[in-house]
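Changelog-adjacent note: as of this version, every example in the card shows the full chain rather than a window. The one below runs 536 residues end to end.
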Amino acid sequence: MGRPPRPPQSWGGVGRGRVWRHAGERDALFALPHRIGGAGGGARGVAGTFPGGAFARNAAIVALFFVVYAAFVPRVMRALDPLTGDEPFYVMTALSILRDGDIEERDNYDRRDYDSFYPPDPLPAGWQGWPAFPRDLPPHPAHSVRPGLYSKHGLGVALLILGPYALGGRVATVLFLNLVAALVALNMVLLARRYLGGRGWLWAIGLTAPLALSNPLMSYAYLIFPEIFAALAIVYAFRRGREARNTAPQWAGVGVALATLPWLHARFLPAVLGLAILLLPGLRRERSWGRRLAFALPPAAAAVALLAFYLYIYGKPLPDTNDHAGFNDLAGTVNGFFGLFLDEQWGLLIYTPLYLLAAAGFAALWHGRRGDARALLLVATPYVLLVAFYLVWWGEWGPPARYLTPIAPLAIAPLACWAARVRRPVAVAAVTLGALPGLAVMSGFLADPQLMYNQPDGHSALFTAWAARLGWGEWPKIIPSFQFYAPSPPFLRASWSLALVWAVIAAFLPHLLRPTGDPEPAASGRDAGPGREAAP
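Full-length structure tokens:
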């Protein structure tokens, strides 16, 4: 067989030198079999090794991450048994739908339907799950205007797990979550390709893996929460929104993504608004009303259905704020904002420092790809501010950085943009050093999954366990605690917060002192592809 033909290519300027761009990139969820050529710079691309082209390549990437995730399912399920935190309440709603055909759950609690996913009483010999849990599961009722018991956690997650849970209970559901997480990883790889130019598929996979196989993305790949579903919806819609053109199935996929997010939780509404604004230029350029309708119909139908659901449960168009713990004042919001990143028990950067390199890389994204940088801020900033406004911004019982999980995949954009602008040995060394702590933390979580969870006492369960094994006694209180149950002194919290601010400023300085990168070229052809800006 001869070598497959190359896709359309062009030269464009980003940062140092020139970046080889491909216009033949296909969609992660709706990829059609085709043949593509090299990854750029004369190197043969990964897709060229697969008979099915892009479809086979995408499937192989999904399979790679899925196999890694699934390998740890027995260990995680054995340790995190029974379901805890918010997980059992999503399952109880699913069981109510499956067994009764309704969402009123009083009879399900009266029948103790939760015993179907609880261990026997007494616990069997050699029990490795949670040592203590409530045998009578207390419900999480909504402040409903209707008689009966309705869950405050909504319907989105319950509907998504309905099929897997009916087919194979918790095991099938967790494997389904693994698949969703693998699709998140695939979209991160494809998004990285947008900025890496000629550095190829192995670079995109290599940059994605340390994030996809670290907390929080890997942690929530095993847990029945909204987080990993929201992560897929956001990264997919963002990625398609930065492309020049979308097919009808791609527009429909974006529409389904936006339609799904509010059903997962009302806190995703700011992200939906940001994504909608991001998508407007592409919709204005779209000449086909069929493609426009493919995008618009799912969110419109979902919005009407969600409004009807809220009116049915709450008698008003939004959930009752009393269903949750409340909100911060201004000082508490600032404290929560920095706590999301720096808190010893729940801070993103404490458990995966590679995100700090991604934050520093945002300067490169802003300098070289201003439109993409603005789009990322448009989606992420309102969501982060809303979460910081939450009184319990850490999400209570769950692995660290729960509420940042949905936007964590977007960090691949600045990370890849930075990696494409520096010398290869520098990029390899920096990413490796930044990834090692996060991979070590995730290894600790997988060795003992119960250490992913923290009591709000100001001390990380994982770090405390490590300190005890190393003979260090109690973990020294160097890393601050921002949550209000056991806060560190204001000076310690302020010092760490200022250090983070100065680190980000320092990352921007080299870019502020030199001229802006080459103008972003208008895209042509069916798909903007990696490294190509959407046409104005």
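Structural remarks: Confidence is low (pLDDT under 50) at residues 1-49, 516-536.
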